[in-house]
Amino acid sequence: MQTARMLSLLFFFLPTLSGTISCGEESPAPEDVFNQRILPIFRSAEPSSCVQCHLASVDLKNYIFPSHEKTFLSLRDQGLIDLKAPANSKILKLIQMGNKDLDEGAKLIHEKMRRMEAKAFAAWIEACCDDVALRNLPKLSTEELAKPSAPDAVIRHARKSRIVDSFARNIWSQRMRCFPCHTPHEIDPENPRHAVAIKKQKELKEKYGDQMQRLNIFRKTPEETLDFLITSSSQTNSGSLPLLNLKDPRNSLIILKPTAKLPHKKPDGTFTDPSSVVPVSHMGGLKMHPNDQSYKSFVAWISDYAKTVNGDYQTVNELPADNWIPSKLILKLKETPKEWKVGTPVQLLLHQWNKDQKRWNESATAFTQGTVTPRGIVNGALFILGHGRSSETTSANKEDGLPSGPFLVQVYLDKKNRLEADPTIMLGDDDFYGSTELDTKRWREGFKTGKIISAKKLQLGR
Ligand code: HEC
Ligand code: HEC
After folding, report:
1. Nearest Cα to 419, choosing from 376, 370, 349, 365?
2. How far apart are CA 284 and CA 299, in angstroms?
3. Which of 63, 191, 235, 69 is nearest to 137 (CA)?
4. What does the alpha-carbon distance between residue 369 and residue 293 come to, in Å, rounded to a whole number?
5. Residue 387 — very low, low, confident or very high, per pLDDT cuts 50/70/90?
6. What residues have CB less than 8 Å from 248, skipping those under 6 apart?
7. What percentage of residues in the chain have a pLDDT greater than 70?
8. Fewest Cβ atoms nearer than 10 Å: which of 18, 67, 230, 289?
């Protein structure tokens, strides 16, 4: 009797039981997998593993809806799921991107998160693909898709590697202006010409002791420098502005210090303590002029970085060109007209001769910016243009510097203080002053071999 009852129970339950078991092991209900493994990613306050390379504008969450079915359809309709070979789905490839990172440190930090995401998505996609009814549901409309709101170009702009590359060009490249006080790695103990620099570093170490790490602003590589600047800026106290000020880029300490003068002197001849809040003073004295070319590139990079991480860019048109390549080639304008006030910003643009079309190129090949000195001079190191975009025959790039002439030098004078509102802009037609030709066989680096033009030779107006 007992046995019979057991058997009947067994028989009664068997079909259902076996059904559940095989279903549970081979193809779990996609909705359950979604709720257990994908929803937690969607709801998490933590950024997804995409942050390893993308500082903003894209996150795995952007592709997820609270609904399992809609998430599947949305990924399917964007071509991110491969119905025939689920393991080859593009969304899995995006998650696996992090494995290819050359930055081993970053790769390691995000590894756990990446594995969890990859396994969760692989299991869920597998389950979905087994669900014929789900696979065959009608298409979503374009507006219904879940994806990042920013276009691809904006997403690419917020990539960490692009930001580091831009930092290297705009800020790191200018570090020799801060030599030797903030550039310990540029000092060569073997070089007799560095004797004064070595002495200066020693003095600073004695004076600042534990504080010295703060003064070692330029680290061994652009990456390490940027890491230091970002970390330090996130820990600032009320006694100091942040090195990088994301709320107000121009009030970044890394700009205010070198554009500030020495602190006041006390009656005994020693200096009062330097200030790191407005009005800032700098024990290194004035090392950068507001509106010189380095000031411009510092402001341009910090503003772009701030907008990028704050997620302020929405459309491609808002993105800056970010195509300045630094050089050590100097261009100097002398004998500026008397009516040009000392301190007025001036932009000098170099246009190349276009042999085929027998005219000057419309877009410039290089530019610099400086302010009128009391001796009537404007000079600066040239930034070569054209990085990452195909302008007219700009044969300029990092390796070959500038081609030989002839060039047309166009001079723009900021008489309306337009750079005060936005130091990063290029002046326009309204600010055009005049132009002159510069023929040069060879460009050589350094101040002594800079190219000189005279304002007296300028042909005024267009
Ligand atoms: C190892 C670095 C790395 C990781 C991690 C990474 N990406 Fe990317 N991503 C890139 C690079 C590089 C590009 C630019 C490709 C190009 O310019 O052609 C890019 C571009 C993109 C684009 C723009 C479209 C395109 O193809 O250019 C999207 C969307 C995107 N990634 C999404 C993601 C998502 C979602 C994640 C996380 C699941 C992610 N990425 C993780 C490096 C990465
Ligand atoms: C001749 C030496 C010298 C040069 C060159 C110099 N500085 Fe300084 N700088 C100092 C000294 C000394 C201090 C510490 C006292 C102070 O805060 O003013 C300092 C402080 C700073 C600080 C504050 C650091 C902090 O976190 O408190 C910043 C930022 C800075 N300098 C930026 C620059 C930049 C950028 C340049 C180059 C464009 C530059 N300095 C050139 C000597 C120099």
Report:
1. 370
2. 20
3. 69
4. 5
5. low
6. none
7. 91
8. 18
